Structure formats: C-alpha cells, structure tokens
C-alpha cells in the first residue's frame, strides 16, 4: 500500500488487493505497561533459566513480588515465543514440524571448526520495543562468531527467517552445515527446501538441549 501513490488512491488500492479500507487505518494496540514490565522480567529470567516452564516462571514472579496467575504467564510466554528447554517425550503421532525435524540430526558434536564458513547457526529471540515486542533472528558463523545476517520482525512467521538467509547468501558465501533449533520457522518445508537446494547439510539441536547452539545463546546475552 502506498498512501501517496501518483495515480491510485487508497480506496482503489484496497479494491485491487481485496482489503477492507478499515484495515488500512487500523493501528495495533500495544501491550499495557504492566504486561511489558512482566515480559521484560520473564525475558531476563529466561536467559538465566531457560528450563523454567510456565509454572516455575509464575512461582519465580511471585517471589519477586508479582502476583500473576499461570494463565497470564502462559499467554505472555507464548506471545514472546518462549518455551521451557527440557527433554520432551517422543510421541507416536507427530505433527508435520516434528516429522521434518526428526530427519535432521545434530551434526556438530565433536566437529573441529578451524576456519570461517564450515558451520553457520541461527536462532530467534524476542526483543523489547517501547510498547511492544519484536522477534530477532541472527545467522552466526561458528568459527569467527560473526553475525552474517539478521532480520527483525513483529511476528514469528517463517518469511523473516528466509529473508535473513537470503541476505546471508547475498554476501557470496555459504556454509557446509547450517544448524538451527527445531522451531517451526526452521523445520518448515519452505526453509529446509532452500537449504537443500543450496546443497547445505542441515543440522538441528536435540530437543531439550539448551547448549547445542551455545554460541548464538551467548550472542543473545550480549545483545540483551
């Protein structure tokens, strides 16, 4: 949409795109100041104790003087894309993301990396804004710890991870192995398809293993 297009007024643009005019002028409401404060506290504690689930995080907030219930903490952690890291039971009926994730083992254990580019790794974290939260994906070279590319997004859709990957490849370099977590953004067919097309081996962290992607986790601590 272009508000000041030379030939197409907004009304006509809405018709062509099949959008309601009201959606053009809609301003998303930010989170309440109280929720933003809670989310910042949750995010800070999660960096220290990524194995805290909803109930343990609720108990920790209570000890810190925040009288919030489990439902509210669950909603805020889901909004931030945070999930406790611990070994989860394998289920007989797997979703699509789980089926794809199981195809890619962790390839970095015992691997000697003595030059740039054999291994890149990626991860997503949430970052606080003035009245909302955004999601940051970074692609890191494991040898130099250099951030090859990054992308910021207001949502957790797969497309912003794809944009970061395309930006990384535009530098004229590519890794032999690309390591990620098992989030739906990285296990999606769209994302793994681009890696396979480029001839890159796909590695994924083990479920519940917080340190398989340790260098990106250290990056998040530095950023925050």
Please provide a written account of the structure.
This protein is an alpha/beta fold and 224 residues long. The chain has three domains: 1-29, no CATH class; 33-80; 96-223, Nucleotidyltransferase, domain 5 (2-Layer Sandwich), CATH 3.30.420.10. The chain is 40% helix and 15% strand. It has ten helices and five strands. Strands 3-2-1-4-5 form a five-stranded mixed beta sheet, with helices on both faces. Strand 2 and strand 3 form a beta hairpin. Helix 4 packs across helix 5 (70-80).
Name a few traits of the molecule.
224 residues, alpha/beta, Nucleotidyltransferase, domain 5
Concise summary:
Helices cover 40% and strands 15% of the residues.
Q: Largest sheet, order of strands side by side?
A: 3-2-1-4-5
Instruction: Please outline the major beta sheet.
Output: 5 strands, mixed
Helix tally? 10
CATH topology assignment of the largest domain = Nucleotidyltransferase, domain 5
Strand content: 15-25%
What's the name of the CATH homologous superfamily of the largest domain?
A: Ribonuclease H-like superfamily/Ribonuclease H
What is the 3D form? flat
Task: Sketch the topology as an H/E string, one letter per element.
Answer: HHHHHHEEEHEHHEH
The CATH architecture of the largest domain is 2-Layer Sandwich
Separation, N- and C-terminal Cα atoms: 34 Å
Using the CA coordinates, give the radius of gyration.
Answer: 20 Å
- CATH level 1 name of the largest domain: Alpha Beta
The structural domain count equals 3
Q: Uncertain runs with pLDDT below 50, 5 residues or more?
A: 91-101
Helix content: 25-40%
* SS content category: alpha/beta
